[in-house]
């Protein structure tokens, strides 16, 4: 009589273990290529927003990135495991040496499986993060958008925006300030200079204050060179700040407004198409837009044309355009004014729904 009473808990316990094992196995498959399995500090990559279908988004991302990656960097190469030098015969009898060799083989095989592009958990819905190795993400993404802008060929269905991420750090103000002081130097430290804007987006994070982050980053840019100016209509550089949970993703990109805030769906739309009228321009200025691309590619310092005319009407339906009188800094050197100018424009630029 006691045996039937003791048996029911066993099947239920078995089911729970089975479910736990299934979840672990599913997670393990997502990182079977080695490397981190989720977004964390110290990574480079490409942050991609999509329209509800993350699996299809990853497939499109791999296809697109491999196509242009092979074009820029050549086909992906893998090391041949069989080419590793073999140990001496005496080591076969040494257990310790054999263990070391086995560990070395495991590490080598793991490195061999590290792909140029690898999807990791982003920590937010409708957001995909592709970790990159041996790739300059900002140059690759700019090349993709530049080609799509010229050819007007639509190559994706579910991918919306594709933002290069040149570095990640912990999403705490002190960590971000310390990281940004070094991170922003290649673009803004004297003798380098340029016009800029800061765009900010936060997901699944409630402890960061948008105004405070933008003001601190603008102050850092101003401290690197007093000639750095805010321009919310046609900046040479756009500082992208994407916060997901406890990770801050940073990058500095060019042609942000020209390429429709790096929106792949919008960048292929022709401004001359009557079915997609431009809300702000006449035909004369729309024709001039093509020449703006060449100017911006050859010399960023000449990028003072009317690139701000490009609209953004897909991902940010609630966005409003910044007022012209607050778009450009007219006086030099004043850090508080610099930060205030960025703050005024950021309110309209950053409340997107991507």
From TrEMBL:
Question: How is the subunit organization of this protein annotated in UniProt?
Answer: Interacts with NAT10. Binds tRNA.
UniProt lists compositionally biased (Basic and acidic residues) regions at: 283-293
User: Per its UniProt record, what SUPFAM superfamilies does this chain match?
Assistant: THUMP domain-like
Biological process (GO), any one: tRNA modification
GO molecular function annotations of the record: RNA binding
Q: What is this protein called?
A: THUMP domain-containing protein 1
- Source species of the chain: Marmota monax
Q: One matching Pfam family, short form?
A: THUMP
- Region Disordered: start-end pairs: 1-39, 73-95, 269-354
Q: Where is the composition biased (Pro residues)?
A: 1-11
